[in-house]
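RETRY 2/3 - previous attempt timed out on the joint model. Re-submitting the same 920-residue input unchanged.
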Amino acid sequence: MAKRVAIVGTGQTFHKSHRPDVNGQEIINEAVQRALADADLKIKDIDAIVIGNMDHFEGINYVDCWSVDGSGGVMKPVIKITTGGTTGASLAIGGNHMVGSGMFEKVLVIGWEKNSESDTTGAITTAFDPIWDRQVFAGAISGLAAEAQGYMARYGASDRDGARVSVRDRKHAMNNPHAQLRKEVTLEEVLASPMLADPIHLLDVCPRTDGACAVIMASEDVAEKICPKPDWIWKTAARHSYAYLGDADYGRLVSMERCAKEIFQKVGIKEPRKEIDVIEMYQPYSFAGLIWIEDMGIVGPGEAPGYIWDGNTDMGGELPVNPSGGVISCNPIGATGLIRCAEAAMQVMGKAEGRQVPDVNFAVSTGFGGCWWTDMLLHGKKKPN
Amino acid sequence: MADKDQLIIESGEAAQPFKYAVGMPGSKFFAETRDNKRLMGEKCPKCGRVYVPPRGICGKCYVKMDEWVEVGPLGVIGTFTILRFAFIDPETGHQKPVPYGYGFIKLDGADTLYQHYINIEDESKIKIGARVEPVWAENRKGTTRDIEYFRVID
Amino acid sequence: MDRAAIIGVGMTKIEANKSRETFADMAWEAVNKALDDAGMTIADIDNVVTTSSDFWDGRTISCMAVGDASGAADKNISCIEGDGTYGAFYGYMRALSGSYKTTLVTGHSKGSQGVSSLLTNAAFDPIYERGLGMDMISACAMQANAYMNKTGVTPEQAALVSVKNHGNALKNPVAQLPMKISVGDVMKSEMIADPLRKLDCSPISDGCCAVVIAHEAVAEKFKKRPIWVRGLAFRTDAFFFGDRDLARSNALAAAAQDAYKMAGITDPKKEIDLIELYDAFTYQELLWLEEMGFAEYGKATELLAQGQFDIDGALPVNASGGLMAGHPVIAAGLYRIAEIVLQLRGEAGAHQVKKAKTGLAHGVNGLCGQSHCVWILDQER
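RETRY 2/3 succeeded.
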């Protein structure tokens, strides 16, 4: 029989733009040690490891094999998942299935990136088709700007609406000691920052980051013995649908809509806006904070700006989004999706300290990447049926 | 943190040369742009969607496509941005000249968007829905650069 | 634990250079062959795992190239980077996770598009090792020397692996390099890195393999007799060669023991009928067989010389021709699984072995067998 799965510990580095003081193995180890300490486990207690990053950011082939001294994987089963920006969330889904299958009781999930070791825009550009896409594509920002243009043209949103999301996330980051960028900004400062690709300003987008995250998942057979208040993984979903950039619907994130529908339907969530208590979204730029909560079904098409201006997604609001400060404050890409998962788990476990949302029953974490791809996890306080 | 003066962090540069298969649908597409200044898409026999770039398979219906239809050459801007930040082009290793217009063109008769440059001499004309035409290169070699860029037509 | 079975397999022909085909073209062919084999349509598949490598494919997010062609347009999907046996392992776990019932697993690679020595050089530590110019062949040459020094096995003895496997490939229509050769031919071939000669090395190859793994609740609903997964395991050794005993493979010994334990196998020599393993170089077939318990350390060569590992021997090893006859990196281990499935069904054609109830498939990840994955497949549940 399949096993129910819970998160019993999480660990993160203090994310920085450059960590020349550590190599990849060492930065991984920082997160692993913190996760083990959080779960009160030793590395010998871990049955298997699933690790991921994006190869061309560090330029190391077979990273799972190279990094065993940092991950603790020597003579353990070690496997690698890589799906681009979604990697961190795909890792969390992978850990969930590894434990859920009954093959492994306790699995250590690791996502990491040292973005300082390469040219990030170059490495992202080479994600796309060498024949058709690479000539004009300019990394993540160009595609995201095209999405924002599509959304603004369709619903009449403005760059002020986007900036409001950036103000929110950067304020939230003040509560998170692990965030890389911790400086509050005003709406005017966002709009006055350099235009990178219309309509995206510098302060609308995520930084480049060095960092790692580790999460320990355990089977229902042991989770409650290890952890007084585990974070149960209720459902996961992933859609990696497009093969070419031009196949997407610019202004809507179809993969988010499909993942949300699948999960909410299976679990029986009818009013996500009321039933979900907190969202940690892989939101690499501000406008996604508008578009994608619509696709998730929190509000209707075109309604996000009003919902956000009313403070509903701020700390203390109806449905806080990104209490951690989100991806705009910190983006070690291969770790980023897993950080969302860890932050959501901490909210459910009551371990989020200065960024804790009260009484979290359900939390959602997401990953974004690839060619408009989404991965999603639903976390819950109660054990799933 | 350790004394930074004692850190040696240089591993040296690394590069990996590759040659990629264009595939048979792509080969036909580029032969047409090179020889006939024609843009071609592939039509799904099941859902009727017309794909550019052509790719042999309709992912949604999971069937093989072998019907070719001419698309464009005129179209509209599906969405766009103007790239203004300096970055290293991984295809050349050099800084890409900015600003440039980056567009997803909805070619007449196609259901997907085709990525290309948009001429931004007059930025006020660059809008979603604006009508565009391709400007063909004189010397066409069967690559995406057979079209120099798309430009807005009044 | 619930059980799962492999119910469909599809392989493209392995070739030196599929210059006409993109990754997507190869995936389409392999996936459709696997679906036809299983008597399924894509609608019967509820999740997909692709296996690829951003390095080998020369593309960040390499899985993007094959998602649509693998039928994943609106399905749950993920991607393993590493050998196809690991991708299949994840696919197996997904089929048992309670979330899904039928996993389609693919593995693809086009060695023809990159430069193998540079790609494998990038697997070495960037600070300590890369500058020395190491690549997979030079590293495995070191392992071959370590193994031969410790066991006394000679290059001539190892060369017989090449003779056997290239010969077996004559009977396998998907093999890239079927050849009737002699030990003398191997010993006369170009020295690549002492003691490895050209015919000791597997070729550079293009290919894609697909398998369908199904939960026991649905495994018997389709066309083909399910081939059951009785045991499987993977283990990873230390990274630096200086931290391992390079003349041995502790990770493989441990992975094999784990897989035997799960399968309830106490005497693998007696209970396993045939093996498909990851013979990237001739000496590896011997070392891997020994670490898995099929011969005493250093003694596999004797059994090889007796013909025990031949197609009609007591324990056929790489009846398909193995990697010697075609080595699409990443996909190679998945081809091993698919070959065992065909054998256990009795559908292997000219290279069918006589007794085939229980088979072992093996895959490798990393340099010199740092990580190994072992599968025990069986006709019976």
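The longest helix of chain A spans residues 139-155. Closing ticket.
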